[in-house]
């Protein structure tokens, strides 16, 4: 039997928790197949895991988590699944927003706004705006997110600003580039978790994950609970991070 997740929390060093965690929430479809149900049933089950993640973020006072919810490539799925996912996303936000707000959690979306129905985005923004002044954990929902798209948009936006305001943007630097990413203002990723056994980034935060610790688990996302999350955090704390340097110079 699984231990209680609280037994793992005791083993965590609260001073060395990751500042920014990315979660590639994968395996909903396979979970549904395993339970002989339609894929959307798996996505609904995945939404329950999101609730657990947010609860643990509150319990541990985690700073920021980015949840990969819908990629720029996920539009290539059957229309019925895309429609179901879009509907589920907004439905979940409506359903959870009051509880999330009560817990002082701030939720926002990150991703490209190009080619997304502006009415749809407005509905999401309106729902989430309730939480925007909250000071607890920040949850970024990566929707229509693709790292390559993000990098291209950042360069285009920087270029446009550099042309109109050459004094402020004399050259493309690390800082001026990062200012134009969807993740502007966020620290780089310390930890990327991917469920379902796949070991790839699938266009998730290629820039921000430069020195992230990667954690892959076979667990399908609907089965990813607080225990699994704490387990990943403990594993993170056991890693030796060097950032290319040597301690004893
Ligand atoms: C992840 O689960 C959720 C999204 C990509 C939206 P999948 O739908 O990719 O599930 P699998 O990988 O087919 O099992
Ligand atoms: C990555 O999962 C995208 C999200 C979790 C939103 P996918 O299931 O779309 O990725 P691939 O196709 O296995 O690389
Ligand atoms: Mg998948």
Layout: helices, strands, pairs:
Layout: H1 5-11, E1 20-24, H2 28-34, H3 39-60, E2 64-71, H4 79-102, E3 106-110, H5 118-128, E4 138-145, H6 147-164, H7 174-178, E5 191-194, E6 213-216, H8 226-238
Parallel strand pairs: 1-2, 1-5, 2-4, 3-4, 5-6
Helix pairs in contact: 1-8, 2-3, 3-4, 4-5
What does the model show?
With 249 residues, the chain is α/β, with parallel strands linked by helices. It has one domain: Undecaprenyl pyrophosphate synthetase (3-Layer(aba) Sandwich). The protein is 43% helix and 14% strand. Strands 3-4-2-1-5-6 form a 6-stranded parallel β-sheet, sandwiched between helices. Helix 2 crosses helix 3, helix 3 packs parallel to helix 4 and helix 4 packs parallel to helix 5. The longest helix is centred in the middle third of the chain and has 24 residues. The model has no long low-confidence stretch (mean pLDDT 97). The protein binds 3-methylbut-3-enyl trihydrogen diphosphate (2 copies) and magnesium ion. One 3-methylbut-3-enyl trihydrogen diphosphate binds next to strand 2.
CATH class categorisation: Alpha Beta
Spans of at least 5 consecutive residues with low confidence: none
What is the tally of helical segments? 8
Number of extended strands: 6
Mean pLDDT: 97
Main sheet overview: 6 strands, parallel
CATH topology (fold) name: Undecaprenyl pyrophosphate synthetase
Order of helices and strands: HEHHEHEHEHHEEH
Strand content: 5-15%
**Helical content (DSSP H or I, runs of 4+):** 40-55%
CATH architecture: 3-Layer(aba) Sandwich
């Amino acid at each position: 039997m699984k231990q209680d997740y609280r037994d793992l929390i005791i083993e965590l060093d609260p001073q060395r928790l990751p500042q920014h965690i990315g979660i590639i929430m994968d395996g909903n479809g396979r979970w549904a197949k395993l339970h002989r149900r339609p894929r959307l049933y798996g996505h609904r089950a995945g939404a329950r895991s999101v609730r657990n993640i947010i609860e643990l973020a509150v319990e541990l006072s985690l700073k920021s988590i980015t949840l990969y919810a819908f990629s720029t490539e996920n539009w290539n799925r059957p229309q019925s699944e895309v429609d179901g996912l879009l509907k589920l996303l907004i439905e979940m936000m409506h359903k959870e927003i009051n509880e999330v707000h009560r817990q002082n959690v701030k939720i926002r979306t990150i991703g490209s706004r190009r080619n997304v129905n502006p009415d749809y985005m407005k509905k999401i923004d309106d729902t989430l705006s309730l939480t925007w002044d909250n000071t607890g954990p920040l949850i970024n929902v990566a929707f229509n997110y693709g790292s390559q798209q993000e990098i291209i948009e950042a360069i285009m936006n920087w270029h446009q600003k550099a042309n109109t305001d050459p004094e402020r943007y004399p050259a493309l630097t690390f800082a001026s580039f990062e200012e134009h990413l969807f993740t502007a203002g966020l620290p780089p990723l310390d930890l990327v978790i991917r469920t379902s056994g796949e070991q790839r980034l699938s266009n998730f935060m290629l820039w921000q994950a430069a020195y992230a610790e990667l954690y892959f688990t076979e667990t399908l996302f609907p089965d990813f609970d607080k225990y699994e999350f704490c387990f990943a955090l403990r594993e993170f704390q056991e890693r030796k991070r060097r950032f290319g340097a040597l301690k004893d110079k």
